[in-house]
Design a protein that fits this description.
Length: 147
């Protein structure tokens, strides 16, 4: 294995910060990041939607293995030179349930955490509001001139 493709939520501040942190760490593999909403993500992994990327982190290896949720996080840690031993410890039968619970807790609360910790920039906020409006049957149009 030489490369990991990491699919994250590009509209989530916490996810974007985690991506920045992962990218800043020395790693054994090339880490390539794509928001799951991007065309490139869909091109690399046509069945990405089946893994619920809006609910959990997804990692694809250059060998074709797909990791989701805590397995994806463990794979990311495994790729990092300073955290590989943590990945191996957390993957043991004794600690894997803890890793799973932590990942589920963070994943389910990530948007709420993002709102409090990492306020959205204007263009990202606009996309999130438009998506929520569409989901609720409304139309949203951003007017920069409105005061």
């Amino acid at each position: 294995m030489k490369r990991l493709y990491i699919f994250y939520d590009g509209e989530c501040g916490l996810c974007r910060r985690c991506r920045e942190w992962l990218a800043s760490q020395p790693s054994y593999f090339d880490l390539i990041f794509h928001p799951f909403q991007s065309e490139e993500a869909r091109r690399l992994c046509p069945d990405l939607h089946r893994f619920q990327p809006d609910e959990q982190l997804i990692v694809l290896s250059d060998e074709g293995c797909v990791y989701a949720g805590e397995a994806a996080w463990l794979m990311c840690l495994y790729a990092l030179k300073e955290y590989r031993s943590w990945s191996e410890k957390l993957a043991t039968p004794a600690l894997r349930p803890l890793a799973r619970r932590i990942c589920l807790l963070v994943s389910h609360r990530r948007l709420r955490l993002s709102q409090r910790l990492f306020p959205l920039s204007g263009h990202v906020l606009e996309k999130v509001v438009a998506k929520a409006a569409k989901k609720n049957g409304h139309r949203f149009r951003y007017d920069q001139n409105a005061q």
